Amino acid sequence: MSCEHIVLGADIGTHSARLVAVTLSGEILASSKRGYSRRIAPGGIAEQDADDWWEAFRGASEEVVDLLGSKAEQIQALSIAHQRGTIVPVDTKGHPVRLALCDSDMRSGLSLDAEGRESERKWLYRRTGCPPVPFVGLGKILWVRTHEPDVYRQTVEWLTPHDYIVHKLSGEYVTSNAVALRVGVLDVEARGNLAEDVLCHYELAPDSFPRVVLAGTTAGAVNRTASGMTGLKEGLPIIAGAGDQQCAIIANRLCLNDIAYVNLGTSFVVSQAVDRLVYDEDGLCTIEVLPQDKVYGPELGSGCGTNVFDWFRQELMRVDASSEQALWNDLSLQAASIPPGARGLVAIPRLWTAVGSSRAAGSIIGIDSSTSIVEMYRGIIEGLAYETRMSLERVERTSGANILELRAFGGATRNELLMQTLADVLNVPVAAGLTDASALGAAIVAASCQEIDCAYPDVLVAGDAMAGTGMGRRYSPDKTRASVYDALFHDTYVTTREIIESPVNSHCRICREESKI
């Protein structure tokens, strides 16, 4: 495409806001990234100040516009990716009533797995595509209503980070179907409507949620006030975006049915894109709506990821974050010579509550007086690969498609031992994709909007043109190691994981009861 208009993509992520300016041929002309913090506290608390999202976005926008100079006049549209499952309540003036409850806030799980409520859980999953787990926004809303009634009474709108930035830019309360799904209130079959029977069941007012439009269509325009604060031109179209995972998939060349994607971030999440609506028979996979007509994304993560590396570095190695890359390089070099199985050590790296589990049950088994820290590291690498395999197999069963390749993105793609172990344990080729891809994916969504000049016909075509020349380094499975890992996975890991979970949950229940005495 010869048209050299520019689109902007933003990612309101867990730790920072990033903004990129991209031509319709895929050249990144400018980018900016501004960080912010989360409040983490005992009891599963994970919160953020929504105004920090705005200040970070505003600063990034000013910098990108400044870097573009006269080319800023060529900006045609902006779209936004965001951290899914995060909810902020706002009052009549659009101001936050409390800190946002982040995706990883564990206080807010829907208690639908209790005896006698199995039918409700199944019904909710079929209506919304979301399992009733803490990562879904609906549980957070119900938690606020129960535990913070004053906050609930002051709330007029429940917004995601995407919706909050759209409102700050335009003054409108608008969301996309791809964003609303992880709030847990979208009718997954209708794709573009709220599930009014779900809202009625939980006694939630439909007008307390933003108006839903299709991802990739216009959600509003930058108003005069926001223009003065961001440097963006007044009237700039704001294109309804999607979640960070979906936008990252788009930036890593969205392919249907036989390619799977894994986000090697804080929690490893496996996704697929399929051309039909599917459901997991056990209701564990979230069924995302992607910003492409009739495309859905079964997805599953176990809660394991670089959070385990952070724990290993901080609590076992006592190494500062500034030195972590040297630590991983050294450990990976030594661990590469250890054969599959980590010399009898089994690491179950489940530090977060997982889908389908009442509590995380992490453990390291098989250590003796000769066990080294390198073997523990190797065991954790293998445990992460096993957990990814369990997620991938569940996604495959849900979609009914045979996965031929796994495309990985996120910070841990830099860990070559992990990448090769994934290929060996999963017995499929693993290709390294773009590490920081969500903002680019949002820009691709903007470029597919039919209401802007020189738009691509859809997200698939836009992605092919703008997502770069191809994937990075490719890791092929070693047949011998893959055979060994297959036996270890079935005969050791899965069995050990199941045995460990029950007594750990019983232990925690007893501890909770004792703490009340």
Task: List the keywords.
seven-stranded mixed beta sheet, six-stranded mixed beta sheet, alpha+beta, 517 residues
Structural class category: alpha+beta
Spatial order of strands in the largest sheet:
16-17-15-14-20-21-22
The CA-CA distance between the termini, in Å, is 70 Å
Q: Count the beta strands.
A: 22
Q: Report helical residue fraction.
A: 25-40%
Radius of gyration: 23 Å
Spans of at least 5 consecutive residues whose pLDDT stays below 50 are: none
Output mean pLDDT.
91
**In DSSP terms, counting alpha (H) and pi (I) runs of 4 or more, how many helices?**
16
3D architecture notes:
It contains 16 helices and 22 strands. The chain is α+β, with helices and mostly antiparallel strands and 517 residues long. The strands form 6 sheets. The chain has a 7-stranded mixed sheet with strand order 16-17-15-14-20-21-22, with helices on both faces. It has a 6-stranded mixed sheet with strand order 3-2-1-6-13-12. A 3-stranded antiparallel sheet has the order 4-5-8, with no helix packed on it. A hairpin with a 3-residue loop joins strand 14 and strand 15 (268-272). Helix 1 (50-68) crosses helix 5 (161-170). The longest helix is centred in the last third of the chain and has 37 residues, at 479-515. The chain is globular and about 65 Å long. It starts with 5 loop residues before the first strand and ends with a helix. The model has no long low-confidence stretch (mean pLDDT 91).
